[in-house]
Amino acid sequence: MEALQRSNVSKFECLLFDMDDTLYPLSLGLNLACRKNIEEFMLEHLEIEEDNVPRMCLELYKEHGTTMAGLKALGYEFDNDEFHAYVHGRLPYDNLKPDPVLRNLLLSMPQRKIIFTNADEAHASQVLTRLGLEDCFEGVICFETLNPPLVDNIVDENKDTAAENIKSFTILCKPTLEAMEAAIEIANADPMKTIFFDDSPRNIVSGKAAGLHTVIVGSSTLVAGADHALSSIHNIKEELPELWEGEEIDQFEPVVRPTVVETQVLA
Predict the structure, then answer these.
(1) Residue range 143-151: average pLDDT?
(2) Is the pLDDT of residue 256 over 60?
(3) Whole-angstrom Cα distance, residue 116 to residue 204?
(4) CA distances from residue 209 to 50, 213, 230 in whole angstroms, order as listed
(5) What single DSSP character describes residue 185?
(6) Long-range contacts of range 253-259, CB-CB < 8 Å, 24 or more positions apart?
(7) 198 alpha-carbon distance from chain centroid
(8) Three-class SS of residue 229?
(9) How far apart are CA 251 and CA 238, in angstroms?
(10) Cβ atoms of residues 112 and 13 within 8 Å
(11) What's the pTM?
C-alpha cells in the first residue's frame, strides 16, 4: 500500500540539455577544431587580417555569445548555411562514439528532454547520431529554430537607418536572456519545473536569470548561478536522484526501444 501511495511524478517536468561539451567531454577535441575552422573562415572568406583573427574571434565570442553572431553584428555578410558547413563540416566527428551509459540514463528519466544548442541542425544531428542519442530527446532547439531564414535574411526597406536594418541580422543565441526565454517558450516549459544543463558558466547565469534550475556540467565546483555541479554528465543520477523520484527500480536497468524515433527540430 505504501508503494502505491508514492508519487511517480518528479517535481521537474522538463530537462533542457546543451549539447557540445555537455553530452560529451571537452577533451574529445571538437571545440578546438571548431574554433580553428571559424578562424580559417574569417581569414579565407571574410579576408580579415591574419594577425587579427584569433583575438577578434575570442572577443566576438565573449561579447556576442558566438563568433558568428559577433561577425554579423559588425556587418560582415555571409550565408549562414555556408558558415555552418565550413565550420562544422570538417570536425572530427569520428571522435564521438556511442554512449550506452548516457543513453540508458536519459531513457530512464520520466521528464521531457530537449536539446538547446547554438549550433545548427545538421551539426546537432551528427552529434546525437554519433553518440547514439538521436531518439533520447523530444526535440532540438538549435540555430535555425531561433533564427528562421526568412527573418534572418530579409531587410526591411522601410527602416530609416542602417542601424535598424542591422538589427534584422542580429543572431539570437545563448547566453542572452532573450534566447533563454525564447527556448523556454518554444519548449512550452515552466521554468520553475525545468532543469537546464550546460558547460558554459555564462549560459548558466542567463539560465538562472530566466528562472531555470541550473546545472553546470564539466565542473566539480559550483559557478555563479548554478544549483548543482557535475564533473561529467554521467554523474547525473548521483547528483540529482530526485529526477527518478517515485520511479520503479527496474527503470535503472538498460532500456531498449524496439524502434528508433528521430529527434525533431522544434520551431
Answers:
(1) 84
(2) no
(3) 13
(4) 38, 10, 20
(5) H
(6) 253/104, 254/100, 254/104, 255/103, 255/104, 255/107, 255/108, 257/107, 257/135
(7) 7
(8) strand
(9) 15
(10) yes
(11) 0.85
